[in-house]
Model the fold of this input.
Amino acid sequence: MNKLIAPYAIAFALTLSGTAFAQDTTTPAQESPEVTTDYDLDTVVATVDGVDITVAHVIAVRDRLPENYRSLPPEVLFPGLVDQLIDQQLLAEAAKETGADETRRVRVQLDNERRGVLSNETIASILEDAVTEDKITSAYEALTAEMTRTTEYNASHILLETEEEALEVVAALNDGGDFETLAQERSTGPSGPTGGELGWFGPGQMVPEFDAAVQSLEVGTVSEPVQTQFGWHVIVVNETRLSPLPPLEQIRPEIVGQLNQDALQAHIDSLREGADITTPEVAISPEAITTLDLTNE
Done:
């Protein structure tokens, strides 16, 4: 679970438990408030010691919940969130009464939270225009242009037990014999019944002797007998091709992610160039994050 939204999820889970308990103990005499359709983002859903909680506050919390909570029915989600915000307001006021809002730990966390929310707004705005179909197509063409493509082979073979048998087949083929027919009649391999067809394969997918023979053959040329651990082969290469490129849809997520990252980084770089940023001449020890304790102040 995202650490940024974990507290909301935990609090909401507790609120749901309390809501469920309250519903179980509701007496028949109690009536639910009338439901209205006359509302907007500023409509007040609760007031806690003079502090208003609005529909907008409820939606903002809902948007930061994990998907499993956001998918709950509105009639469950809405009152649970209202109760959560009421409880949070009460707890926040209690913290103020103890002076917790004046502690360094709370102040810097509020600073970071505000900074994070505002930066997320800028990020969302940048990413909204970062990806278009034209940009995806251009990125795909650039990416695939740099890919290394190997030669793949479509070959057939006739497998025989002895070199003498293999030489006989070579002679028959050179005399005009049909490769497919001879494979069906004489090959001892599993591809014999289909005319010896092996389909498409790339370098290194066959045993070394077979692989070397295939790579040395011209298309349509019958090999001399080739010995491997399986026996003696007579080979013909039917076609060659370059290994196919991955389809756009297969690598679309990778491209979209890179476009978003590039757009965000470019914007950050431009902001850094235009900003007055200074850092102390003396570097602070990285151990500071473990040796200093915010809870002491």
User: Anything to note?
Assistant: The two ends are 30 Å apart (CA to CA). The longest helix spans residues 248-274.
